[in-house]
Specification:
- By secondary structure, the chain is mainly alpha-helical.
- It has four helices and no strands.
- The longest helix is centred in the last third of the chain and has 24 residues.
- It is globular, with a radius of gyration of 14 Å.
């Protein structure tokens, strides 16, 4: 079955990723870590299934998932950790924003934000 026929399935839990707000792939795109042409072929994950990203989203509207095992990434430098939290949280907020804006996908990344 073609990917467009089956939707995007999470490579971790195998459940469908229903919208971009719960997509780690689109968050990485907004952050500039994934190119637009990679969106259609790269593996997808729910944010709740992507431990590396979810642990750095610090916002009252984001409920961090609970993981069975301790997998928190250790960043010894407090300033680096805070910078990473600020960057990933800003990307998550941008992802929520683009859903409402109705803008072209090429304008999603933070670098295109005015």
């Amino acid at each position: 079955m073609a990917k467009c026929d089956q939707g995007y399935l999470c490579e971790y839990c195998s459940e469908p990723v229903k919208n971009i707000v719960e997509s780690s792939l689109y968050l990485r795109y907004v952050l500039g870590e994934v190119e637009v042409h990679e969106l259609f072929a790269a593996p997808e994950r729910h944010l709740k299934c992507d431990h590396d990203l979810a642990q750095f989203i610090k916002h009252e509207k984001f409920a961090p998932p609970e993981f069975d095992t301790e997998i928190k990434q250790t960043i010894p430098d407090e300033e680096q950790r805070k910078n990473k939290e600020a960057r990933i949280t800003a990307g998550w907020l941008r992802l929520r924003e683009v859903v409402q804006l109705g803008i072209p996908i090429t304008d999603y990344p933070l670098s295109h934000q005015s």
